[in-house]
Design goal:
The chain is mainly alpha-helical. It has 3 helices and no strands. It is elongated, with a radius of gyration of 21 Å. The two termini are about 20 Å apart.
Length: about 100
């Protein structure tokens, strides 16, 4: 039970760290490029995505796919970490016996 909790905690922390790195990289990029470049980029995004919005079904489908991907990634990381922890604990128990 402890291994499952530890692996899921590690998975959530890893995904949070990846998102933090991505967000920090974006902030650094726009800080480096400047205000005018950021505003031009946002203006282009508005014209491309918000001026002609997608249908509600299209948005729901996209977010469903994104949510499933993130959930699968979370569970995949947790599974791998759990297997590694089980292998490590099995070696420690065998060495102590």
């Amino acid at each position: 039970m402890k291994i499952k909790i530890i692996s899921e905690l590690f998975s959530a922390t890893a995904l949070g760290a990846f998102f933090g790195l991505y967000s920090n990289g974006s902030h650094q990029k726009w800080h480096r490029l400047g205000r005018e470049a950021f505003l031009a980029h946002e203006s282009q995004n508005f014209d491309k995505m918000y001026a002609n919005p997608s249908s509600l079904m299209h948005l729901i489908l996209i977010w469903l796919v994104v949510a499933l991907f993130v959930f699968a990634l979370y569970k995949g990381i947790a599974f791998v970490v759990a297997k590694v922890l089980l292998a490590i604990t099995d070696k420690d128990e065998a060495a102590q016996a």
